[in-house]
Structures are given as structure tokens and as C-alpha cells.
Design a protein that fits this description.
GO terms for molecular function: DNA-binding transcription factor activity, RNA polymerase II-specific; protein dimerization activity; RNA polymerase II cis-regulatory region sequence-specific DNA binding; RNA polymerase II-specific DNA-binding transcription factor binding. InterPro entries: bHLH_dom, HLH_DNA-bd_sf, Max-like/E-box_TFs. This is Max-like protein X. The chain is mostly helical and about 220 residues long. The chain is built from 8 helices and no strands. The chain has a domain at about 155-219. About 80% of the residues lie in helices and about 0% in strands. It is rod-shaped, with a radius of gyration of 54 Å. The N and C termini lie far apart (about 190 Å).
Amino acid sequence: PALFMENARKSSIVSRANSIGSTSASSVPNTDDEDSDYHQEPYKESYKDRRRRAHTQAEQKRRDAIKKGYDDLQAIVPTCEQQDFSIGSQKLSKAIVLQKTIDYIQFLHKEKKKQEEEVSTLRKDVMALKIMKVNYEQIVKAHQDNPNEGKDQVSDEVKFNVFQGIMDSLFQSFNASISVTSFQELSACVFSWIEEHCKPQTLRDIVIGVLHQVKSQLF
């Protein structure tokens, strides 16, 4: 009986141990199921990831803008479109594009200055022509008002003397005002002389002076 009771006690202890183990096992979560559920949840982007993505997009946008700017320069600047045998068919570098752009802008500045000088010269030509036009209109008007006055009374010699006197007077001021260092300076001085010494009133005074001189010689 004592042995029977001892075996019964041991069997009871083992049964309780198995019961406790079963209860503990049932309380442990199923890790395989949890892993499966975790992978099924949607990925949530962190704030750091959003900042990194926004920075990458902004950087790409900046690079695209710079590339477009260089492409526009190559399309606008004529020298960038010409074949450069020193680099073959390779694409122009940014440094070459910038240098060619600077050279082209400097060329345009020189052309602009040259055109401004040409416009200034043309304005002087127009002013001189206007003065000559006014003078010829006055001469024509005077002849129309008195078409027969002095007819057949003045010889060709007297006419030549009057013309020579006018030209001599004009040449004196012309010779004193004109510089012949260069053709450009000569042209500028001629128009300046016309504006200063060929005004209607000045020419009128010269002609009157010459006529008085010729008159005194004749009479």
C-alpha cells in the first residue's frame, strides 16, 4: 500500500505539471500569426522620409531649371550653335556656354554703340539737308517774286565774282574748323561746320557782304 500511494502521488504531480505547462503554452501568443498580421499592415511614411523625399524633389527641380537655362542660352546665342572643331561633336560644357554668352553680349554692346554713332551722324546729315532745303526755297521764292529783275544787266564775270567771294568767305571758316586727321573726324567736323557757319542768317550776311563788295568795285 505504501508503494501504491507513492506512485499515485508522483502521478498527481506529473499531471499537475502537464496541466500548468498546457495553460502556459496557451497563454503564449502565436508569433507566426503576429508576423503575418504585421506584414499585412500598410507602410506609414515617417516625417523624416517625407522631408527626404521633398528635398530630393526640390533638388531635382533646381537641376532641371539650371539645365533648361543652359539649353535656352545655347538656343539663343548664335555662336553656341556653330560647329566647334576643337571639341568635335561633343556637347558644349556649361563653362563654354557661359563664355560664349559673355562674348556675344560684349559683341552686342559694341554693335549698339556703333549704331548709336551712325544714328548721330545721320541726324547731322538730316539737319544739314534741312538747312540747304530752306536756303534753296528762299532762293527760288526770291526768283519767283522778281523773275525779270536785273535780267541782262549782270555779266557772267560779275556772277563769278559774287560766287567766288561767297566761296572764299566760306572756305576761310571751313579751313579753320575742319580737321583732316582721319576720315571719321573729317566727316564729323564737316557737319559741325555746316551747323555753325551755314545757318540761313550767317549765309545771308555773307552774301550781303559780298554783294556790297562787288557793288563798290563796279561803281
